[in-house]
Design a protein that fits this description.
Its EC number is 2.7.7.65. With 507 residues, the protein is an alpha+beta fold. The chain folds into three domains: 192 residues, Arp2/3 complex 21 kDa subunit ARPC3; 135 residues; 157 residues, Reverse transcriptase/Diguanylate cyclase domain (Alpha-Beta Plaits, 2-Layer Sandwich), CATH 3.30.70. It is 67% helix and 9% strand.
Length: 507
């Protein structure tokens, strides 16, 4: 399973103007919502800054033109901080530079992504940590410190030790907030694409909803039983990973992260501390550790399942190919390659079963032994290729005269045999005569333009209760065939000696 932004996804968005407006709207909305619900005083610093993830994703998908709505969105979010109590806090020029730096952050993250993941994407568990460090964290760490240097250079940040210490703490928190924003947004986007490409089954949806409901229940319990709730999260996340994979675990992680932040900001949950800075750091460590662990586990499990499915398909395909080859080998082993008829081995196997059935149910069973007259002369005079054409034509004519229940086989050379179930000797003789007449009408032309006609001699016999196997019938049919040859060929003869031996032949 590959969790990646494909080349088709990158820069492939249609109606760019609408998408640019959507980027601006989503960027501003997530920014103000983050300040309102997932931020801590003083300074209203958000624990997870989703606009950073929106910026990265927009530039990655829409290209360089997406920097404009990102820049305008960042500037819009910061405009309320231009004045406070009729006192200028930050000049418009400084706010503009800050917005430009945050836009640069998305651009740098996009470049880092192209350097490390453009070809293969986040395709394994090990890639999760690499993405976090080399794309999300690296781009944020570089740009957030530029903002601090900007404030120092413009005089908005005094060289006071306490002020610098406070800003150092805030810088760490802001860096992590932007990093987690990129981390979670990309995870949610990939979850969307994974579910779109491989939709969840109804069972997976039910399990996912039930598990998410359990997550929210545990989060609610955390208001009263803070320590217990953290332990309860582990098996629930494990169920999400096993049954819904990367997509479900990313959604669950996002819900728990924001629930935890909102609860802590309102004085509830396991991460409440006297110092908001400590609370924010604890929440970030929790979200980071859970996120890395869950996504690593989910991607690893998804890859194992994908490999398992691929292996199962490969085994199934190779099994089908092997069965096909076996059928072909069986057909070659039981079929005459020239005429497509059964060979001697296959015929004897089928004929013996028919003999047993005929004797069990006391139904007649007859055999015709056929032999082409003067076939050796045809082969010697016109060549073996022409002889093969004669055998094929002979086979086709015979099959046209027989029933579907009859079985014709080539015993070798110009010798053939026909098994006639539920056919008396009298009827078998009629069938033999029908075959003889049809064969005598065959006309073939050699390459030299010589017309050749063929005839055949046919011996007929019928099974009795004393026959142990089909070999005795073949022997009697051959004797009758010999008589047909003896009396001038192109004839049908029955095995009359059966009556002399005392066998009661059905008529």
């Amino acid at each position: 399973m590959e969790c990646k932004l494909s080349k088709e996804q990158e820069g492939s968005i249609s109606k760019p103007n609408l998408w640019h407006m959507a980027v601006y709207a989503v960027y501003v909305a997530t920014g103000f919502l983050g300040i309102a619900f997932v931020s801590f005083p003083p300074g209203h610093i958000s624990v997870v800054w989703l606009p950073s993830g929106i910026a990265f994703l927009a530039i990655l998908l829409l290209g360089p033109l997406a920097t404009l709505p990102v820049f305008l969105g960042s500037l819009t979010i910061k405009l309320p901080y231009l004045y406070d109590d009729d006192r200028a806090l930050l000049s418009l020029s400084v706010l503009t530079l800050v917005a430009a730096i945050e836009t640069l952050q998305g651009w740098i993250a996009h470049k880092f992504w192209n350097s490390h993941f453009q070809e293969r994407g986040i395709s394994s568990g090990a890639d999760v940590l690499t993405f976090f460090l080399r794309v999300a964290f690296a781009s944020c760490a570089f740009t957030v410190w530029l903002i601090v240097l900007l404030f120092i250079a413009t005089g908005y940040l005094q060289n006071d030790l306490n002020v610098l210490q406070n800003w150092a703490e805030n810088t760490v928190v802001i860096t992590m907030a932007h990093t987690l924003g990129i981390f979670l947004v990309v995870a949610l986007y990939q979850s969307y694409w994974l579910v779109k490409q491989d939709p969840w089954t109804l069972k997976e949806i039910k399990i996912g909803l039930a598990t998410l409901a359990c997550l929210l229940t545990v989060c609610a319990i955390s208001f009263s039983y803070t320590e217990l709730s953290l332990y309860l999260l582990l098996p629930i996340f494990l169920i999400l990973i096993i049954h819904t994979g990367y997509a479900g675990s990313s959604i669950g992680l996002t819900l728990v992260s924001f629930w935890t932040i909102i609860a802590t900001a309102n004085g509830n949950g396991p991460f409440v501390a006297d110092d908001n800075y400590i609370s924010m750091i604890h929440i970030m460590i929790f979200v980071l550790c859970m996120g890395l662990t869950m996504q690593f586990s989910a991607l690893t499990l998804d890859n194992l399942n994908a490999n398992k499915r691929h292996m199962a398909k490969t085994i199934q395909r190779r099994t089908e190919e092997l069965e096909k080859k076996n059928r072909q080998l069986l057909e070659l082993a039981s079929t005459d390659h020239l005429t497509g008829l059964c060979n001697r081995r296959s015929f004897e196997k089928i004929a013996n079963k028919e003999l047993e059935r005929a004797q069990r149910y006391q139904t007649p069973l007859s055999i015709l032994a056929l032999d082409l007259d003067f076939f050796k002369t045809i082969n010697d005079s016109y060549g073996h290729p022409f002889g093969d054409e004669v055998l094929k034509a002979f086979t086709d004519v015979c099959l046209d005269c027989l029933r579907k229940t009859d079985l014709m086989a080539r015993l070798g050379g110009e010798e053939f045999v026909v098994l006639l179930p539920e056919t008396t000797e009298y009827l078998a003789t009629n069938v033999g005569e029908k075959l003889r007449l049809a064969i005598s009408e065959i006309r073939l032309t050699t390459n030299e333009g010589i017309d050749v006609s063929i005839t055949c001699s046919i011996g007929v016999t019928t099974a009795t209760m004393q026959d142990d196997n089909i070999a005795s019938l073949l022997h009697r049919a051959d004797e009758a065939l010999y008589d047909a040859k003896k009396f001038g060929r192109n004839k049908v003869c029955t095995y009359k000696r059966l009556q002399e031996a005392g066998f009661d032949l059905p008529q």
